Amino acid sequence: MDPVTTPSTPPSLEVSGLAFAYPDGHQALFGVDFAVARGERVALLGPNGAGKTTLVLHLNGILSGGAGTVTVAGLPVGKRHMAEIRQKVGIVFQDPDDQLFMPTVREDVAFGPAAAGLKGPELEQRVRTALERVGMAEFADRPPHHLSFGQRRRVAVATVLAMEPEILVLDEPSSNLDPASRRELADILRALDVTVLMVTHDLPYALELCPRALILSDGVIAADGPTGSLLSDEDLMRAHRLELPFGFDPRAASAPRG
What we know:
The protein is of the alpha/beta class. It has nine helices and ten strands. The chain is globular.
């Protein structure tokens, strides 16, 4: 899916002047500005403590009350549109067990759409489609705790896809995956026709999947550009405590595909 932004098609995500301090006075964001076009895959990189989690929790209104604005598909994130925003912004957390709590995979994937009022054949089709998109349709009647960690992460992605989101936010999607599961998830994410914001410390994975990257550091966007270019800038990487795996050369790695 090629990125699309036109006057009639607003960005999937637009963040403008976002600043936020926690009640204890810790200032986590100092004025964050960026936009993500519909269909883009963008990596959000940065050291621990940079503000990445705080930023993500603003995207669907879990955190609010600071300065600036967040807009999803043209809708401002706020109380007035909260139900619609939470359908449009699907967050897949780092630990799939935070999202899987029903007796079967099918029931977990159906939970969100059913809560939103879907029922009968339409609900069944929504669940089937979401599981097919992550290659887990044959496991629909299995208890999630009988699956491997990689399979549970794919089901967690399906629970979000079942809501037909505008943007998929992934928190460390490759963590704790063996090489085969990592590859399978990459193939799934690459095939999705949805906007993706991927929060990750796995810089090779970011390069493989996301043509564009943002570096969030000390609560501001310190860099925004082609992922390969940012990862190849040794001074930039050093300044923001980002390190590539030993021997990995981003200039020699293949650029992300479509």
